[in-house]
Amino acid sequence: MGCVQSRSVEERPSVTVVGSYNVGLFYKAERLPSAGETVIGNCFWEGGGGKGSNQAIAASRFGARVRFIGKIGSDRYGNDALAMYQRFGVSGDRILIDPEAHTGISVIFVDQAGRNQIMVVPGANFKLSPEDIDEARPAFAESGIVGFQLENPLEVVAYAIRTAHEMGIPTLLDPAPAASLPESLYAFLDYIKPNETEATVLTGIRVCDPASAAEAGRWLLERGVGTAIVTLGKEGAVLVTRSGVKHYVPPEVEAVDSTGAGDVFAGALMAALAQGKSVEDAIVFSNQAAALSVTRLGVIGAIPTLAEVMDSFVSLRAAAATAAR
Fold first, then answer.
1. Considering the domain boundaries, does residue 121 fall inside one?
2. Predicted model pTM
3. Contact between 174 and 277 (Cβ < 8 Å)
4. Lowest-confidence range among 24-28, 31-35, 189-193, 310-314?
5. Model pLDDT, residue 8
6. Are the C-beta atoms of residues 136 and 94 closer than 8 Å to each other?
């Protein structure tokens, strides 16, 4: 099967991601505080996040030339984001800085059992406007695909999707966090990639297995979506097109942390599609990349390199050949 290949910077396929950046502030303690209670924590760490940002970095790791379009504040966290994009080779020339808003922040409290309480304050992410999208049209025009999520104002995301689609640029929506969409928006989506929860919210169909995922995918196609890819965690992904339904099972791995696996899948998918790979090959590649990511802790640090994904294909083929003897 064909997969993403290494290329020079000038030849790399172009992916544009419109989305959010949130710094994550993590606090860990023996137990979570009750209302009005103070507890003493035993661990703190912080790291870059936001679904759009994660997907942009993943696409860059998998061989694409990536531009991220979003809005941050003129604060330390915003400066950290710009430094991170430079480190991972993501173009920040369309990242806007709002001097009157703070950079998006997620505060996560975690107890010893892994249970958490999360508060997200979008800040500058919710300042992205249709005018900002209009100014980004030249970036859309250079793209092989433009990716979106739902961590910016829905009306702005919808406007950006329509803008890219009307320019003839393929669009991909990862509809997270789960939310209902305007009925008229589906016809502007070339690809949609919901997980079980998001597919359930969108369609009203309880998605819990490949059969129900296929039913939800057909519902989405009936409303105008070009291609539906419903992800099912360790059960892989179900592809629904007008030609039929296919279920793609990922490799079995020992999972350590599944946080961010959906973003790794989306970034890999965009990188492969932008290079002109078939959606079937792109899903196989994305399954492999996401499976590798869950064997590591964290989100950004867990994203494998393109070389690691390609090496894992070689290992799988070698194992399959040995088993067949």
1. no
2. 0.89
3. no
4. 310-314
5. 44
6. yes
